[in-house]
What we know:
Blueprint: E1 3-9, H1 13-23, E2 31-38, E3 42-49, H2 52-58, E4 69-75, E5 90-91, E6 97-102, H3 108-117, H4 127-142, H5 145-155, E7 160-166, E8 173-178, E9 183-186, E10 190-194, E11 206-209, E12 215-218, E13 223-226, E14 232-233, E15 238-239, H6 255-261, H7 263-271, E16 275-276, E17 279-280, H8 289-294, E18 297-302, H9 304-321, E19 325-329, H10 330-333, E20 344-350, H11 356-367, E21 371-376, H12 382-386, E22 389-392, H13 405-425, H14 430-451, H15 454-464, E23 469-474, H16 477-493, E24 496-501, E25 518-523, H17 529-541, E26 545-551, H18 555-561, E27 564-568, H19 576-594
Parallel strand pairs: 18-19, 18-20, 20-21, 21-22, 23-24, 23-25, 25-26, 26-27
Antiparallel strand pairs: 1-4, 1-10, 2-3, 2-4, 5-6, 6-7, 7-8, 8-12, 9-10, 9-11, 11-15, 12-13, 13-14, 16-17
Helix pairs in contact: 3-4, 4-5, 7-13, 7-14, 9-13, 9-16, 13-14, 14-19, 15-19, 16-19
Bound molecules: 5-amino-5-deoxy-1-O-phosphono-D-mannitol (M6R).
Amino acid sequence: MCGIIGFAGREQAAPILLDGLERMEYRGYDSAGIAVRSATKGLQVKKTKGRLQVLRDLTHDGAELEGTLGIGHTRWATHGEPNDINAHPHVSENGRIALVHNGIIENYLEIKEQLQRHGVTFTSDTDSEVVAQLLEFHYNECHNMLEAVGRVLRRIQGSYAFGIICSDYPNALIAARKDSPLILGFGENGNFIASDVTAIIKHTRDVVYMDDGEIAVVTAENIDVFDSEMNPLEKKHSQVDWDVSAAEKGGYAHFMFKEIMEQPEAIRKTVSPRVREGRVVLDDLRLPAEYVRDISRIFIIACGSSYHVGMVSKYNWERLLRRPVEVCLASEFRYSDPLVDEKSLVVVISQSGETLDTMAAMREAKRLGARTLAIVNVVGSSIAREADDVLYTWAGPEIAVATTKAYSTQLVLMDLVGLYLADLLGTVEKSEYDAILWELQTLPEKLEQVLTHVEDIQYFASRYFNHNSIFFIGRNLDYAMGLEGSLKLKEISYIHSEAYASGELKHGTISLIEPGTLVVALGTYAALFDKSMSNVVEVKARGAEVLAVTTERFREKMEKTADSTVVVPDTHPILQPSLGVVPLQLFAYYVALQRGCDIDKPRNLAKSVTVE
Ligand code: M6R
């Protein structure tokens, strides 16, 4: 949520900042701004409501701002509506200090009132401006920027990643973080701060992940990192192992479509290195066998689509492990006084590894004594670093706000972990273990087959895109998959949609079915296919139009009842959602396209949700 970039170097900063912001625009896109300092022009700030292109036009692609030191920001509004004034950077009253901020300052009102009593005038509604003004206040007292930053950090509560420049310091920018991601990048022509590797990958792969409470001073030549007591720190460098093309559209109209098409390869990369000689090998997992045998309860905690992966995994893990598995929304878990203890295994799932709700839930679980395992895509992210164990999905950068390949790789990684644990516990038959593992390895080819039929789905989308309300129904794994299909559709096409367990319809929801209502019926879960069909017949009898997703095995039966049918290959039952979800992703994509929606940047959303 919100993207931050900063540069101190030997090139003009503004074009570099704009390019970085463009690559990070998926983190927030309601307004954007940059501040650059030069010896002749001092601090120059340009910011505006709207997409980054508006800022580009305003600054003539950065040519308007002179200087080799600067900071930039792309915003997802929390405090104050998206407008020019609330956009970042925020500048202190005397115009000497400019600041960009990601996160939320919880005690900002109290500080604001205090500063107002000292005569400070505020221009915006944001919590972030309060920090810029507080900085000036302390800087006026101590005349040392680093000292002033230290005083401010001791005074504020909440989460933050800051990039700060001051006109009295021509060569340095200051960065600080707590509960909001920030990385340092070491480039040839200068050094960087960024909330996301994507912003700077064009310039460097040599990065350092800042930890909570740390402060960095970035110049063209060097980056010094300090702890909260201002003691210098030696930080470990990491090399980013993907290149800039992975975060570009590469000829596709949208990142979402590119990422859907990348799924076979992404799944291959997640699965292949973890299967050796017919066994699941999880080198990175350090869960002691005795601990696994003692696990009494498993919690899967996540948000949004990652939560839906948890829903699928609950069915699969309970079947494989014969242990109770509870799936919790991270935002609820934390405040529910959860019954977690040392015998609980807590699995958190997150694409970004920065989702604040998930992070907070994980910390709560740790506090209660549980061991935590994180399933994460973004390498070096906060959740990945704080969990006891981490397994990466290796899906590569996912840029579209609506997740697709990250979801798919989370699914298969959870299947691999489930198999691995079941093997340790002795709760899975060898024949079943072998069958699942074999099918996991053949998923990429089967997915490729599904993706050769995108035109069929495009056609169905053109038939149904005008509906105002769409239901997804299914049982068991099909229900869990329907939750994801429904979320995909509503987040990018803005069509109201709900997913229901088919058997639950008759307990209320069926009253909403009237002639012409579109029902997406999921019939891929073999064990309950006949029961699901009865529910399809029930909605048909009330006039619903049915678009079905089923497997080759049930094609004939489904085609007799449904109005339109999409067929995916058969696989092992527990893996069927990995194939079935793809037509749902494509359906959402094409419906949104028909409705002229901004697919990669849907309204009100952002990719990584770092506020509560
Ligand atoms: O990065 P995370 O997996 O923790 O994100 C969780 C949700 O915010 C995310 O899945 C969201 O629901 C997506 N926009 C769904 O497409």
